[in-house]
Amino acid sequence: AQTVTQSQPEMSVQEAETVTLSCTYDTSESDYYLFWYKQPPSRQMILVIRQEAYKQQNATENRFSVNFQKAAKSFSLKISDSQLGDAAMYFCAYRSGRRDMRFGAGTRLTVKP
Amino acid sequence: GAVVSQHPSWVICKSGTSVKIECRSLDFQATTMFWYRQFPKQSLMLMATSNEGSKATYEQGVEKDKFLINHASLTLSTLTVTSAHPEDSSFYICSASAGLAGVVLDTQYFGPGTRLTVL
Predict the structure, then answer these.
(1) Nearest-angstrom CA–CA distance, B45 and B27
(2) Do B110 and A44 touch (CB under 8 A)?
(3) Which residue of chain A is at minimal alpha-carbon distance from B1?
(4) Which of B31, B43, B107 is opposite residue A35, by nearest beta carbon?
(5) 3-class DSSP assignment, residue B86
(6) Interchain CB distance below 8 Å, A104 and B106
(7) What is the pLDDT along chain A (113 residues), one digit of tens a residue?
(8) How far is the alpha carbon of A58 from chain B, nearest alpha carbon, in Å?
(9) What residue spans of A3-107 are helical by DSSP H?
């Protein structure tokens, strides 16, 4: 079974600084997708970034980037120039094929002004 | 982008009554929809997966007679909590995955969630 582990229950960052959220996963599949979702207090799940396992290049979306290490099964999220609006729960997720998405336990990010 | 709506956003009901929650994909056809339950400060727990026109597949431990799921069209899935009890109080989230061009196939798009409180 595929599992997703987020070892940091809480993280804190100063506004305008950079923070990295960790995620590891376990799978025997070779073709899969990895995601980072953000859940603000409104509880709406928002897709932050997506990575296809077959791509070696790390995905980037504006201030958000990932460090995808396929051999190590690691998928960390880097948030640059942190903003107050980045404060939220962040979930790392794994999906293979059309099956359901598996989520990590989440990391609560606090941004200090 | 792909938008998924849920209705109602919150509902309060008496114990023993049934509650229906709707999940709609507004601008794409959702071949697969998922229903999750989320307890406070916890991750999302998958309840069931439904494909349009077929019976839902329930996760182990989820009572299919209590949580009725219908996916009658490519844009609508419903979750009915039958004979609700206080322990069913939770935040229910649906998500949809598309199978057509123009929408990322392997991404799930989430609805805003429904908070159910059973008195």
Answers:
(1) 26
(2) yes
(3) A47
(4) B107
(5) helix
(6) no
(7) 668 999 999 999 999 999 999 999 999 888 889 999 999 999 999 999 999 999 989 999 999 999 999 999 999 999 999 999 999 999 999 988 666 788 999 999 999 99
(8) 17
(9) none
